[in-house]
Specification:
Strand order of the largest sheet: 2-1-3-4
Order of helices and strands: EHEHEHHEHHH
Structural class: alpha/beta
Helix content: 40-55%
Oligomer: single chain
Number of strands: 4
CATH architecture: 3-Layer(aba) Sandwich
Radius of gyration: 17 Å
Distance between the termini: 49 Å
CATH topology: Rossmann fold
Largest sheet: 4 strands, parallel
Number of domains: 1
Strand content: 5-15%
Shape: globular
Length: 186
């Protein structure tokens, strides 16, 4: 069962953050922001797949796991690895804009079904987080700004650090072209 933020020691390096939202781009952005603030990990699709891939808990660690089942699986792995406190951060994009974008880009065709599916994924993620996390944060994709980060990051135990955000793989056009080829054809 989730506990309150007051039970955490934000200076303890044994805190792991699991980011789990319905949009992978928002998850990568937020992970990149947490790395900028000193977490081990990265804001790319290159996430740990085996327990041996997890670094020792000598500093905070951020992990992207998109589904509720992944949260259920990885929370105990992180605890077994020495992380004492798990914060799950669910990042949500405004639903109408998100679904409209998905339909416009032809990721899906039926607006009502994708809206329902997206809502169910958010519910599943929150239910999983409630089962295994020590703390849950819910933020909106549209709400991320430097001003927001200055206030929010210290609340979850991280310092605000200004500067660029490193998003590995996002600047390599060939990789993006291969993965999303049809979306780059004009």
């Amino acid at each position: 069962m989730a506990t309150s933020r007051e039970n955490a020691n934000p200076t303890d390096p044994k805190v792991a953050y699991i980011i789990s939202g319905t949009e992978s781009s928002g998850n990568r952005l937020l992970a990149g922001i947490l790395v900028r603030s000193g977490c081990a990990g990265e804001g790319s699709h290159n996430q740990p797949h085996q327990p041996a891939d997890i670094p020792s808990p000598d500093k905070h660690f951020v992990l992207i796991k998109h589904t509720g089942n992944e949260i259920r699986k990885w929370s105990p792995i992180l605890k077994d690895h020495g992380y004492k406190y798990i914060t799950v951060i669910v990042i949500i994009r405004e639903p109408i804009a998100n679904v409209s974008s998905m339909v416009a880009r032809k990721h899906c065709r039926f607006y009502p079904s994708i809206y329902k599916d997206r809502t169910q994924k958010i519910i599943d993620t929150l239910e999983a987080a409630k089962e295994v996390a020590d703390h849950i944060e819910i933020i909106t994709y549209e709400g991320i700004s430097e001003q927001f980060l200055k206030q929010w990051l210290p609340m979850i135990g991280l310092p605000y650090v200004a500067g660029p955000i490193n998003l590995p793989g996002q600047g390599i056009f060939d990789q993006i072209t291969v993965q999303n080829y049809k979306h780059y054809q004009q």
